[in-house]
Amino acid sequence: MMRVLNVNYEKCTGCRLCEMACSLGHFTLFSHWFSRIRVLKGKTFFHFYPQFCTQCGDAYCVRACPTGALEKKFDLVHYDRNKCILCRQCTFACPWGLIYPDPEMQFMIKCDLCGGDPECVKVCLQDAITFVDVEEGADIKQFSNVNKMEGGR
């Protein structure tokens, strides 16, 4: 059984606590620029969409990386900062642009599920973000946060 992040958009208030917890947990600072989750505002009033790497089964970012800095292991796309040359091929390959450079262009930022204990889930006061079990080989697209966005696929 594997675990994935799931979002109930009807519950998200756009408070962005998930962004702050993520950046604090990974970089010990409060900054949405360093967060591995991004909360986007929808087209209509009070619609918000938390976005994060969905750890795709056939991850385009992994295939696009020329140095092997991205590798799929145990249902997670791992990033090795020491192998990365910041070419941004992973960003261009990701259909949702959910791997991106830090503001100072020193490394790439992507969700790593906090080692199996996501900070964003812990701080979400509305329980909009949950960490759920899914069957191995399940259609992860149904859990994809991108899939349910306004105008999404």
Can you characterise this structure?
The strands form four sheets. The protein has a two-stranded antiparallel sheet with strand order 1-8. With 153 residues, the chain is α+β, with helices and mostly antiparallel strands. The chain folds into two domains: 95 residues, Alpha-Beta Plaits (2-Layer Sandwich), CATH 3.30.70.20; 41 residues, Alpha-Beta Plaits. The chain is built from four helices and eight strands.
Secondary structure layout plus pairing:
Layout: E1 2-7, H1 17-27, E2 38-41, E3 48-51, H2 60-64, E4 70-73, E5 76-79, H3 89-93, E6 100-101, E7 108-109, H4 119-123, E8 129-134
Pfam family, one: Fer4_11
InterPro entries: 4Fe4S_Fe-S-bd, 4Fe4S_Fe_S_CS, RnfB_subfamily
Keywords: 4Fe-4S, Electron transport, Iron, Iron-sulfur, Metal-binding, Transport
Offer a concise description of the structure:
It comes from candidate division WOR-3 bacterium. The chain is α+β, with helices and mostly antiparallel strands. The chain has two domains: 1-52 and 111-153, Alpha-Beta Plaits, CATH 3.30.70.20; 56-96, 2-Layer Sandwich (Alpha-Beta Plaits), CATH 3.30.70.20.
The count of DSSP E runs of length 2 or more, i.e. the number of strands, is 8
Cα-to-Cα separation, first versus last residue: 26 Å
Based on CA atoms alone, the radius of gyration comes out at 15 Å
Low-confidence stretches: 145-153
Count the domains: 2
Largest sheet: 2 strands, antiparallel
Tell me the strand percentage band. 15-25%
Q: What's the mean pLDDT score?
A: 87
Structural class: alpha+beta
CATH class membership of the largest domain: Alpha Beta
